[in-house]
Amino acid sequence: MDASTITKPRPSSLAAEAADAALSPTAPRSAVRARPVVLGLVLPVALALGWEAAVRLGLAQGRLMPPPSRIFEAFWSLARTGDLWTHVGATLGRVLAGFAFGALFGTAVGALAGASERFRWFFDPTLQALRSVPSIAWVPLFLLWFGIFETSKIILIAVGVFFPVYLGVAGAIEGIDRKLLEVGRVFRLSGFAMVRRVLLPAVLPAWILALRSGLGLGFMFVVAAELMGASEGLGYLLLDGQQMGRPDQILAAIIAFALLGKLCDGVLVAIGTPLTAWQDTRRGRL
Amino acid sequence: MFVVDRLTKTYADGARALQSVNLAVEEGEILAVVGGSGCGKTTLLRLVAGLDAASEGAITVDGEPILGPHPAVGIVFQEPRLLPWLTVADNVAFGIQDLPRAERRDRVVQALDKVGLAEHARRWPRELSGGQQQRVSIARALVARPKVLLLDEPFSALDAFTRASLHDHLLALWEASRPTVVIVTHDVEEAVALADRVVVMRPRPGRVFETISVRAARPRDKLAPGFDKAKRRVLNALDRSLRPTEEHPNPTAGGAELWW
Ligand SMILES: Nc1ncnc2c1ncn2[C@@H]1O[C@H](COP(=O)(O)OP(=O)(O)O)[C@@H](O)[C@H]1O
Ligand SMILES: [Mg+2]
Questions:
Q1: Which of A5, A14, A276 to mutate to test binding with chain B, by most B CBs within 10 Å of its CB?
Q2: Which one is the CATH code of B2-72+146-242: 3.40.50.300, 3.40.50.1240, 3.50.50.60, 3.90.380.10?
Q3: Looking at chain B, which residue has its C-alpha nearest residue A178?
Q4: What ipTM was reported for this prediction?
Q5: How far apart are alpha carbons A72 and A94 in whole angstroms?
Q6: Per its record, what are the GO molecular function terms (chain B) (predicted)?
Q7: Which of A137, A193, A224, B38 has the maximal Cβ count within 10 Å?
């Protein structure tokens, strides 16, 4: 979506040449941030090492809850045979396709709802009602309607992505500061210029946030979709692990899910951060 | 010449914010508008800026009617209203995107220089103090070279010290192109320090109560006896304007002039 290219503050334009740059004081931040990260790692690492030691020393069996080394082994063998990448690719493809549709419709409908009160009165109650349906409840219906293959999965994910994006965008547009719009009016911006120069930049942070929560839900829904029946994908790995009685494979798939989700969110954040550097808040990173 | 002719505004809820306000402001004149709260000062400026429509009456700038936002009219709001996603320089340039690049840059550099923010050109608005932000906002209005600049209590949120220095910045900018200035304020000292004429309004319905001329060269010495005298005159008029209507049958438009 090209909002990103439009709304970037243009340091290369006037400002760059205007005067000696006063560099913003952002340098020492990474050092400060390192400490909480280390602190946050203590507990999981300690638990993992503790469990590993307990199993090795024979204090625990580790059959249902395999120690980290076995999980890693399972993960590694999946990666080495290339199976992991097939599954990751399948899952990622579904999530991205569903995300694309959901984000597109969520943004469009959210923009309409935010801009027009009538549209909101007419559609919002219905959408809110649909939103309160637990997503998994759709699965049987979608299977009937769209078959057991990719279509139903992607639609399920798109439905999951749609709602947070819709809500975020509608709320952001509705909440735009009227006072800033008036600045645009004073300088006689055309409708299009008003959207490009005031509306889009104003809703961009909320939009990125909405996309991030949409993506998060997309990952939740892809599990649901794949558990319903798939021959590949990380969700299939989960189910397969259960049927084969291999908790190490299940945990390896869970870890792959976590990594993949984090990675995708990281990509969104990396795209969004430079575009919203002007914000007055220190955004929590990732 | 900027003329407001029998301007009347009744809001949808029936509030009579302005009734038959007449003003004629010379080119390059600085007019201050004072008055109790609710006497229609903001309404007046919003009508002139074309942000709201008048119920009756007309506004013209050099004979041209103002029916909506107009390039001849610039406005500075009570809050700076900077766009947080634009740098200081880009904020100043916001209203002059149609100009050629070089021209645009020259104007921005000059304006930022005049308000003493040249070294902050590349900062975000949030990195500036309230007074600095308001200076950016004034620069943004003035780079578009309006014939009439409206300011609605632009310094009311600032401390007295900052306010005084902003007066100097405002006058420096004004000096460069000498637009007509209409500044709304609740600070009588500010009105007397800046204006050629001070218009005192009275509420319910909002109308002009009295006009007091202040003839003295700028920058004005706030310790001069004449300054105090002018201040007292305005305060006195303000005081009378807030009394019940019966007591002032005929407001003295264009009232006695004051020299020092
Ligand atoms: N948008 C509005 N709708 C209805 N009444 C308004 C509106 N804006 C202002 N008024 C009323 O008009 C009168 C003048 O308001 P205003 O112009 O803001 O006064 P001032 O700026 O002098 O304090 C007040 O009585 C106020 O309540
Ligand atoms: Mg006001």
A1: A14
A2: 3.40.50.300
A3: B81
A4: 0.84
A5: 26
A6: ATP binding; ATP hydrolysis activity
A7: A224
